[in-house]
Amino acid sequence: MTPSRTRWAAVLAAVWMGPVAGCDPVAPSGPSDRDDTAVDSDLPVPSACSVENAGTLPLGRRTNRALARGLADLLGADRDGGVDVSALPAADVATGYTNTRLDAVGGVSEAFLLAWRPTIARAAYASATSDVSVSVSLSSLVGTAGSEVPSPWGSQHTMRALQWGEGSLVVPFTLPMDGTWDVGLPVSWWLGWEDETLNAITARSTARLLLDGVQVDSWPVSAAFDTPKRRAVKVDLAAGPHTLELQPLWTGVGLPEGLTYAWILGNVEAHLEDAPTVPLSIAGTSVSCATGTSDDLVACAEPVLFDVARRAGSLPSSEVDLSGPLTVLRAARDAGAPPEEAIALALETILLSPRLLFLPTPSDDGALPPHAMAERLADTLWRSVPDVALLDCADADGLGVDGAEDDPCTLGAQVRRMLDDPRSDALYEDFVHQWLTLEGLDHTERDPALYPFIQDAAFDSMREEIRRIVLGTLAEDAPVRDLLDSPTHWVDAHLATLYGAPIPADQADAVADGGWFSWEDPTGARRGVLTSAAFLAAHSQSDRTSPVKRGVAILSKILCSPPGPPSPDAGVFSPDEREENPQDVLAQHRSDPSCNACHKDIDPMGLPLERYDAVGGERTRYANGDTIGHEATLPDGTVFHSPSDLIDAIVTDPRTDTCLAQQLFTWMQGRAPTPEDEPLIEAMASPDHPATFASMIETWVASPQARCLYRP
Fold it and tell me: Sign (positive/negative) of CA torsion 511, 516, 518, 523?
């Protein structure tokens, strides 16, 4: 549905926009007058939330991904693509994660606003929809005689061959509520035989329309139609299942030989007439609203709008102010807008509030009050807005560190609840995807001459495998280190071919239909996410592997020991070298002191993974025929003989757990760590026992870094 800007202008002219959901008023009329989104940079710094204890957080707007997921949750849309934010400008990326430095100085760009308001309008109108008509697919059409044949009118119609007087076509449908319904069925027919007797034939042909077995219409068939004609009846019907039946009749003695024909039907369409209420979907909630005055519509919509405004602004129940949105709704309805359009305008008004864009709001002393903490938890763990349960805890002054063991509103209890919620897939969708720099899958094409079996669907399978591994680790509360060491991989038909994994006989049909099964490499070489196709392909070139990219990724994101920038005169692989043995080429690079300073650390991390090609499949030889070796030597003399040796070294390296904690801290905190953060990161790494996602997050949320806001 497209919003009526003419009507919206009239509404704005008729009303004064008061406060919106506890915020400054914002009307969806254009990108101007949005200075209200700027934030105060002179926040006080009390002793409990000071620079010295690193209770700092760059204040900025939500990421585009968080806005999409938050809007989807608010409006009852599909969280995967249900709200399109592709028009929003991409945010700057700092420290490797997109949730850092997002408009942190305050305000948002003009380009963002120009795209944000249409995005909100589309989402609001998609959410506020009328459900007063019923359209029934003909996939359920039952013919008591005849068969289906192709239709010359296209896929929106169904053609059924049916002998005249030898059966009927029955279309079942279901009505959602009692009322006076206009029920119709587009009908036409087609003859495959034509001569001078056509008119004589059709003169003896009639058709009947039956509703629930009772005739409600009949007509003579005079000639074939180019388009179906709607046959309809208005009648009082109760909610529930009903049937429309088309019955052709032949009044003559017999049919000419060779006559072929078919009835062509559209979908059953049923529209509610003169209903006392209209069934609507508002932000994913089904309600039945009176169709009369604007007061009727306000009474119906207000509870749903209250919930949306409360969650969009992370507000205490007592502070939700719907005066602005409800004024808009009344004015739009009084101006003649249909109920769904008036509701959409009210939703749009709420969603344009700055409170939905910016995170979070501190109290005067710099500490995050309960509702701001709820907002921060939801954005961190779900990349979304708080749910009612989280805000109810905030209303009760909960979300503190201390509390009774059985108190469901302590920070620890809420973290555990939220991690058990499907929305915690943000840990994969946002954190792990960026941590492992899997965006390489999105930007690198594969040479079809070298990898003809790798299409977009195969890359989707690679991403899905990592998602399953991560969510399994989360569900089992397993050590995060298991992501690097687990022998279990998740495989579908694409990855079974790539990995050489035999499909279990009892799962063959399921896998053929897109199913998955767990698999362990019997050689033990393919272990953890670093030997997954997703990681290996994301850190390769289109036509070859890149031991340098793989090594840099491991040093930077797994061990937090990134190599320095390459020297200005550092070489690159020449076209001739790409056909050579990369191990020999890199050995030549290391012989140059200007290159060896970095490559002595990078190459041993990437070369053992040369067993896997540019899409993650196994191989034994290079393009020049050389046998692939896996040996690599660290500067301290440690030798890796296989990918397993590399994984063993990484898993036992004391830097690994600390680095995992540091990466998660950076993603959650929204900034790079400082020396003052080191004690917290060490605590998150849990030196006394393997750290899990839950334990690291619970340690973080109890810290001043999570619970305080100071703008550096």
Answer: positive
Strands 205-211 and 214-220: antiparallel
In 3D, which of 548, 546, 589, 550 has the Cα closest to residue 570?
589
Q: Kind of pairing, strands 639-640 and 632-633?
A: antiparallel
Distance CA 568, CA 490 (A): 42
Helix (H) or strand (E) holding 211: strand 205-211
Spatial separation of the C-alpha atoms in residues 505 and 478, rounded to whole Å: 30
- Spatial neighbors of 698 by CB under 8 A, at least 6 apart, are 411, 412, 415, 416
pLDDT of residue 399: 87
Q: What is the radius of gyration, based on Cα positions, of the chain?
A: 32
The dihedral built from the CA positions of residue 496, 500, 505 and 506, taken in this order, carries a sign that is: negative
Query: Model confidence over 279-336: pLDDT tens digits?
Result: 788 888 888 787 678 898 999 999 999 999 999 999 999 999 999 999 999 999 888 8
- Chain position carrying tokens 């009329």: 29
Helix (H) or strand (E) holding 377: helix 370-381
Per-residue pLDDT at 10: 44
Residue positions counted in the chain? 712
State whether the Cα torsion 519-521-527-530 is positive or negative.
Answer: negative
Residues β-bridged to residue 287:
280
**Which structure tokens are listed for 367?**
């500490």
Six-digit token string for 363: 């109290």
410 near 393, Cβ under 8 Å? no
Residue whose token pair is 């710099």: 366
Q: Are β-strands 169-175 and 268-273 bridged in parallel, bridged antiparallel, or unpaired?
A: unpaired
42 burial (CB, 10 Å; 0-12 / 13-18 / 19+) is exposed
Question: What angle, rounded to 10 degrees, do the helices at 339-351 and 64-75 form?
Answer: 140
What are the residue ranges in the chain where pLDDT is below 50?
1-47, 51, 53-54, 101, 103-106, 145-159, 161, 194, 196, 712
- Residue listed under structure tokens 């449908």: 173
Q: Residue 639 and residue 654: Cα distance in Å, rounded?
A: 18
What span, in angstroms and rounded, lies between the C-alpha atoms of 19 and 645?
A: 62
- Is the separation of the CB atoms in 425 and 467 below 8 Å? yes
Domain ranges of the chain: 133-274, 431-652
Tell me yes or no: is domain 133-274 CATH 3.40.1160.10.
no
237-255 burial code (b ≥16 CB/10 A, e <16): beeeebebbbbbebeeeeb
Whole-model pTM above 0.90?
no
Amino acid at 248: P
Residue whose C-alpha is closest to residue 367's, from 706, 22, 24: 706
Half-sphere exposure of 385 (CA within 13 A, CB side): 25
Which DSSP symbol is given to 267? Answer: -
